[in-house]
Amino acid sequence: MSTPTGFMEYSRQIQAERNPAERVLDWKEFHLHLTEEEMRTQASRCMDCGTPYCHTGMELASGTSGCPVNNLIPEWNHLVYRGLWQEALERLHATNNFPEFTGRVCPAPCEGSCTVGLIGEPVTIKSIEEEIIERGFREGWVTAKPPQRRTGKRVAVVGSGPAGLACADQLNQAGHSVTVYERDDRIGGLLTYGIPTMKLDKEVVERRVRLLAEEGIRFVTNIEIGTDIPARELVDQYDAVVLCAGATKPREFVIEGSDLEGIHYAMDYLNGTIKSYLNSNLEDGCYVSAAGKDVIVIGGGDTGTDCVATALRHGCRSITQFGTRPQAPAVRDEAANPWPQFPNVYTLDYAHQEAKALYGRDPREFSIMTTRFVGDEEGRVKELHTVQIERIVDEQGRKTYRPIPGTERVYPAQLVIVAVGFDGPEATLIEQLGLDTDRHTNVKAVNGKYGTKISNVFAAGDMRRGQSLVVWAIHEGREAAREVDMYLANHLSSCPE
Ligand SMILES: Cc1cc2nc3c(=O)[nH]c(=O)nc-3n(C[C@H](O)[C@H](O)[C@H](O)COP(=O)(O)OP(=O)(O)OC[C@H]3O[C@@H](n4cnc5c(N)ncnc54)[C@H](O)[C@@H]3O)c2cc1C
Ligand code: SF4
């Protein structure tokens, strides 16, 4: 334990952020960093409790509680408190391949389940995680470590998001020869094309990909398995194949007027901007711009929030984000949402702070449903018709929404971004291999085993569990790698190179 009474002596302190009104003028990361002294003080608040819920990831009440990669949080907090940063880095890397990603974008379910949070403010965990790994890079402690010996076995990983990268890293370290196939022009999956640059600088992704390549992983971009190479051919050519192709098929939103010009799905909108920014600092104009427009984002989740932040940086005239859920309570509802569940409380995410700084209000409208779009004479969207809704339980006992008469309203909009969720993975790979799917159309692979009905084909990450979190993707990539390694050891004779 760092200090037995640290949590009583010191208050929680988290990373400061750049001024919201200033940071919307660029695309750089918005987090600032605590000083070394502040980090060590924060680490001293960790009690090293007997049953640390923070490092045991589980799903509770449809949310995540604790750390899905089982980061050894009390251990590295103690090491940070003592100033032993390199030792802390070793403990961190023992469970998490990419703490520089989770330290930036993880919603930190570990903090929601921290024991100190039962009686006060939880320990600052995520910021310490980021600092441990960033210090590791600065000090030159993070270097390429190719495996000492090769097994002669070849594994193909389809998809280069966090699941594919974690899986490839683990298998490569075990000595297998790994090739990662990515259909996009850059490696990283949603880390690159999805999560905006202000949350995760793409150089951070490229820095890790360079290391993995130095360690021997082969990356092949601009190749779509199932189109450029038939999926069956890949399965025949490699000793094992791991499908980590994500689950980004957009949920359709079809209502009157939804085919009007100016209505876009969130991923097209976000990715166009990221690609144009990386290719030309937005000078090629190959993206949908919100500049000078009244923008409405339909969807109250995190993807919608990233669209809000992107539209603000484009220079939109106004921004509104619609969500069907009611506004969350200011403090945790202890009866409905007890510790250690992820706390469902009203907060302003980074994009909401920015909108508030520019326009003086939280851009979100809660409990609202769009009923139709109306266009102008040229077929471009010009307004949205809405109604307020309330949650009810219908006669069959299902939770549903009911419109509240008299609450109809019209919102002007020249750009609408639809971020109402995802409908599982794309069908091509699944159909070509004849794989089974679950009721959400994700690839069916036994939880904890990752094997599909084809003995040498495995599935992990969002493709198996549905749209989720980076930290769950890393967890699944690591676990699937363990299963593949056991499969290779048990089913194929060894042939060292
Ligand atoms: C806009 C957005 C913001 C998000 N923000 C956060 C956040 O802040 N924090 C967080 O924890 N999570 C966030 N998430 C969720 C998180 O990014 C995902 O859960 C995670 O990336 C899933 O990892 P994955 O490796 O399973 O799949 P992906 O990251 O989706 O990677 C799949 C890859 O497979 C490739 N691929 C697909 N089909 C083929 C094929 N046939 N051949 C070759 N390649 C193929 C795709 O191009 C893609 O690169 C966000 C998601 C979105 C959409
Ligand atoms: S990966 Fe996420 S849950 Fe785990 S310690 Fe880091 S911030 Fe917490």
Tell me what you see in this structure.
This protein has 497 residues and is α/β, with parallel strands linked by helices. The chain folds into three domains: 6-139, Fumarate Reductase Iron-sulfur Protein, Chain B, domain 2, CATH 1.10.1060.10; 154-248 and 423-493, FAD/NAD(P)-binding domain (3-Layer(bba) Sandwich); 252-418, FAD/NAD(P)-binding domain (3-Layer(bba) Sandwich). Helix content is 32%, strand content 15%. It has 17 helices and 16 strands. The chain has helices at residues 6-9, 20-23, 36-43, 73-81, 85-93, 99-105, 109-112, 126-138, 162-173, 202-214, 231-237, 266-280, 302-314, 350-359, 428-433, 462-465, 470-491; strands at residues 58-60, 63-65, 154-158, 177-181, 218-220, 240-243, 263-265, 294-298, 318-322, 364-365, 368-375, 381-393, 399-403, 409-412, 415-418, 457-459. The strands form four sheets. It has a five-stranded parallel beta sheet with strand order 5-4-3-6-16, covered by helices on one side. It has a five-stranded parallel beta sheet with strand order 7-15-8-9-10. A hairpin with a 5-residue loop joins strand 12 and strand 13. The two termini are 46 Å apart. The mean pLDDT is 94. The site of flavin-adenine dinucleotide (FAD) has 39 residues, from helix 9, helix 13, helix 16 and helix 17.
